[in-house]
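FYI - complex with coenzyme A, inputs then prediction.
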Amino acid sequence: MGNYRTTYDDARQDPSAFWLKQAKDVQWSTPPSQGVDTSRSPFDTWFADGEINACYNALDYHVANGRAEQAAIVYDSPVTNSKRTLSYAELLDQVSHFAGALKALGVGRGDRVLIYMPMVPEAVVAVLASARLGAVHSVVFGGFAAKELAVRIDDSTPSVLVAASCGVEPNRLVEYKPLLDQAIEIATHKVPHTVVLQREQCTAPMIDGRDHDWNALVKSASAVECVPVASTDPLYVLYTSGTTGQPKGVVRDTGGSVVSLKWSMKAVYDTDPGDVFWAASDIGWVVGHSYIIYGPLFQGCTTLMYEGKPVGTPDAGAFWRVIEEHQVKVLFTAPTAFRAIRKEDPEGKLIKDYDLSKFKALFLAGERCDPDTLIWAQEKLQRPVIDHWWQTETGWAICANCTGLEVMPVKAGSPTVPVPGYHLDVLDDSGDPVERGQIGSLVVKLPLPPGTFSNLWNAPDRYQSSYFERFPGYYETGDAGYIDDGGYAFVMARTDDVINVAGHRLSTGAMEEVLASHPDVAECAVLGVADDLKGQLPLGLVILNSGCERDNSEIASELVTRVREHIGPVAAFKSVAVVARLPKTRSGKILRATMRSIADRVEWKMPATIEDPAVLEEIQTALAELGYAKETSV
Ligand code: COA
Ligand code: AMP
């Protein structure tokens, strides 16, 4: 594959030639002659004259080329105490029949299929069946509430909604069907059909005419073949948090995704066909799309689907048990999972109980990896531990240690260097490049490589204004950081109101909208404060309407419930303080960053623009009552 520097330079000098070369490594029904088309920038397209099907690349090709009997999916579910293996031939059979079932419900090329499912193989079947028909899937994470599901239904207007009767969390069953019914009720778009996978843990009541039982439907369905689509046709829409309550529907095209993910499986993760790859994430997140489903299957690997947690299912040795039992070569998860393991097993004693001889490397992403966690994992595992940085928008790594090209020395706190295809720069507020070592906005020079987002669903103006307007000619990542003298990138913080809770991306703006909708709340702010386990946790500060004489703690608990019901348990919103005033600038802007520094006990300066410095003392007292901010002084 060449070493890092030559590969990076090749991709930089002539992106079209570089990626057309990589495109030869995947299966097209019409091979492309065009690389990138920048004529409508920033709506750049890749391989515009090519035709392809993603499901064909994931399944049919491998079945026809010697992998029919190889495991495609190994499902390991400690929460239901079950395991299952599906070979490539079995998975293809299930996918082509489920695609037939969807087709019988009227799904065709370009239609949307919304998938609201836990970590079961049928979720992958639904995704690939959608891709097989040239339809556009949109997976919604199971930890989101009915309201969030309804927003996604209205934005993506699906023809079919595929769900399971329940998800299984270690401490409870999450019944999906009532959430689904509620979401369909709230949404303006009326979904004509749902398909429900009845799990044995709970049987959902069905609505005649609208709800179809998965098994019954598949039994009467005939298998269908892949529908070739334009390379530029959307493969999926994945909603992610922006700065407002309206999530952004990230659109990923088909050809670019197949080429980039296949290439990354070797270049970034150094995996070969036949290897076992485990992304311990969820299919509802981008990591799940790229590296539970598509990447490993494009590469002819076995993908591991784990329905469990790093701790408590049953203990902090769960990851090592899975690695040994299924001979995992590469594990990819979020640093928070390792913080959870370390908390339970600080000495890493459980690691020694398992044979990890097949395990080659650990990749971490989803949030900044604190050096402590990285060093702990390195010491305990005695394997390369690789932090890499990416986003829902990019779909694959912007910066990484590309182990399939060349293993570079690790610097704790850095996701290493830009991956070939990404030309990273750091700009100041006026758009000028900063000196090496100086913090600024992390931006990627256009064109972005294939497999990154091509638009926002129903929101091309927002696509342009959110990502490409502030720094013309660049993609604005929304992260701040720096590049050191050795060319290593350091990603330090978001520049917007997005926070990262246990590797899950959430919007403080969306939570503020929920708090503000409470009848007793006059004004509010939500901050992402530092947390030892989850990286960040949301914390709400509210001012009540004058004249409100209700008990503060009662209102606080209503607010916690309200966020859980409107956004979902995954927001982990549990702390609220009622305050008399919020600190503001003279122009009325709430000083969230200053409050966050006080909560996190880091150094801060009195903002010159503050209207009344005394407010900060009140805030400090309120935060201290919640267990934050004790050691700072104003
Ligand atoms: N469906 C329904 N509810 C879900 C859910 C799902 N798929 N996933 C999580 N939830 C719920 C949990 O039950 C929990 O609810 P609770 O408030 O009733 O306890 C809440 O959402 C928060 O869940 P989670 O983020 O998993 O936190 P946790 O406290 O249960 O566990 C960790 C902490 C660190 C073990 C956990 O966050 C973890 O495994 N993180 C790994 C990170 C990861 O996978 N990141 C993905 C990006 S790579
Ligand atoms: P998501 O879109 O959910 O994948 O979240 C993307 C955001 O998570 C990025 O914009 C970063 O803020 C953060 N992030 C992901 N990976 C890393 C990393 N390796 N280091 C620092 N931040 C990261």
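The mean pLDDT is 95. The pocket of adenosine monophosphate (ligand 2) is lined by residues 240, 286, 365-369, 387-392, 415, 478-479, 491, 494, 500, 505 (CB under 6 Å).
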